[in-house]
Amino acid sequence: MAASCVRVCRRLVGRSGAVQRPETRSNGGGHRYYSTSHFLCQCVAGKQTDGAEEVVIPRKKTWDKLAVLQALATTVNRDPTAVHYRFQDDPYLIPRTSPEYRLYFLSQESGRNAARYIVNTYPKLFQKDFAEPSIPCLMPQQLEPLISEVTEDALKERIQLRRVKESVDLYDQLVQAGTPVCLETTNALLDLLCVYGDQEPPRENPGATDHQNEVNGDSQKRWRGRLRKASDLLTVTWRANNNAERIFNLMPERNEHSFCTMIRGMVKYSAYAKAVNMYTDLLNNRMKADVHTFNALISAVPELKEAYNERIDFVLELLKQMAEQKVQPNLLTFNSALKCLRKCGSYAKNPSLQIINEMKALKIEPSLATFDHLLGIFYKIAATNQLQNDFIFILLHEMEGKHFEAKDPDDVNFFSSAMRVCLEMKDLELAYKIHSILETGDNWKLLGDSYQRSIYYGRFFTILCMMESIDVVLKWYRDLIPSLYYPNVQGLMDLLQALDTENQLQLIPHIWKDIKQLGHSNKQDLVEEVLELMGRDKHSPELQAAFADTALDIKAVYKQNQNLQWTAISLGNVTTLILRGGRTQDAWSPLILRRSKEKRLSSLNLFSMMLPLFKANNRVPSKAVLDEFLDHAKESSNKALALDLVKLAGTFSLPATSELLHRVTTEFELSEEERRSLEELDGSSSSDDSSSGSDSSDSDRE
To answer: Rounded to whole angstroms, how far apart are CA atoms 477 and 460?
Structure first.
């Protein structure tokens, strides 16, 4: 009957999909029914009553409010040439360098904290709700108590407002007055004390100084402030005989909630031994702990036991007690156990597999944190044996094609950890598999914050530069940077090494422009690497001209940035590149002197100004630089430049003077007078060398 009804529905809809006029059919009992579109109606035969057949129409499907937007989002792809969607609200504030990228997120978080502080501190200014539709969670919270009497309702109100000291004082007043406090309210007070460690909760106040530091980019003060706040959180410990313990001991009756709250609070604030003792008291009172308490105890095992085998035995014992108490474990239970096993060395491999089998038996789907803990267990050190290599492929095969959701705070660590394993194994195929899992569905949302995202893409880009061809590397470079990834210095160094390996140095001028745009032109090692690659070999005149322009640009960066210091290698490379590009006039005057009037200087005058710069920076020109000058003089048939080059080198007592003199005498046609002047220079330099040698020997004897 159901099949015939479906056929009728299809016939009514027709080929065009429009609903036609319904037909009326009789079922023999006089009753009639009407068929509608098969998209909304499925006829299901029910029980027959008095020869009539009942038709049950199912409820229509309720669509999500975002269903249309999600469907539209699947029709477009990411534009790699555009900035990330998070920066498109205000084009003026789009970060274009790595420092601006960090400053953007810090300023954004600072603005949120400042707005939250104003709303919560002055809620009376925001009593009128003009929002349409109204969103209650975005409205200011009620922070001032409304009940002033000493009653249990006033205590509940202060507990809800998270006023720790006032709640404890009001509870003591009620106890002293002989007013009984119900068990539920007392447990709520214990919850408050154990969550905040018997301390007042921190107020979200960014402060004017911190905000100014964010705006001015004062990174040192900002990080010092963060470290100070972190150290303050670490100093909060479980004090002996605090208010939580005192109130717990004063309670006339306790239930499982009371014990479990105390155990979790003790674990949270590092009172691990007391937590175990409290758990023993719970068992002695013939009660059982809940799953969250077991999760807390499992997470505390590494602090309770030092030996690896003792840790493993304790974790297995807790899991066994959960089974005896008929407490159903959840995902966080097994993740806590695996996280504990990560700190047990190679002993943890077999127990971790047993835990995974137990999860499958209980039909608990693992999260990304589960796989991350397994990677931490099996790949503690760089994988070398075949078993470990096979294990990660089995792991990724299990994950392939799945859509993951955030179920554990440690889920965001998986992708960066997995890419670290790929980098250690130098396995490009494995890296591509991990990236395909990342791009499946909305798994990319589990990359974590901007810092973890940068770590993941940095490792992925590094292994691409190491293992992939340069064409593929440049394709990924255009696809990832800067829409998804702002590379650090190491990433750009890897790219330069890949260009050098594939002999694609003609792309260095374009990469240098990206280096400047990304804000890394002030990194000494990176700039020197660019100069070294360009100045190592000779190339075509067109490429040498492009290299010369890049060298002049780098020279200007040195002049503007005080963090960059000239070295003999960088000076020599800049000089060599500009000479090879035929930019002799531009090589010296902007590099050496700051003149109020520009003059056309000869190569001799320019060279005479170069040597004092080397001396001022305690650098000695290399022989390669001097040879470049001499080659330039030979190509231009400038004998005077060659002679003056040797004379100036002798004046500054350069070690390569004798070799330059030999080249000039053999490669140039010199007159007798010129030869005599060079011989006199050779004799004076030899006497200077002998005197310096005698001085050094005298100093050695002394």
So the answer is: 11
